[in-house]
Amino acid sequence: MSGDNKNKITVDIYGQQYTIVGDESSSHIRLVASMVDDKMREISSKNPQLDTSKLAVLTAVNAIHDYLKVKDEKDLLELELKNTKD
Question: Does the predicted TM-score (pTM) go above 0.85?
Fold first, then answer.
């Protein structure tokens, strides 16, 4: 059964407790939570007037922006690698 290997971890993100269930290791889940917390605190320090909902949305926007940049770089590197093999 696929649910047998799920990890259930309680983490603190921006002063709130969240229980996260996932297939990844506990250390991976904690790292992700820590990175989200760090990004929220970074954005909050630059925009202290933001409420938590807006802060969470801006954190998500920043995370997806970073993800897309890394994905584009990966795709470009894969294309370059393919072209060197041809």
Answer: no
Secondary structure element (H or E) that encloses residue 83, with its range: helix 52-85
Question: Three-class SS of residue 81?
Answer: helix
Q: Do 14 and 40 meet the contact criterion of CB atoms below 8 Å apart?
A: yes
* Three-class SS of 1-69: CHHHHCEEEEEEECCEEEEEEECCCHHHHHHHHHHHHHHHHHHHHHCCCCCHHHHHHHHHHHHHHHHHH
Checking if the pLDDT of 1 tops 50, the result is no
- Closest C-alpha among 39, 84, 82, 44 to residue 63: 39
Averaged pLDDT for residues 20-29: 96
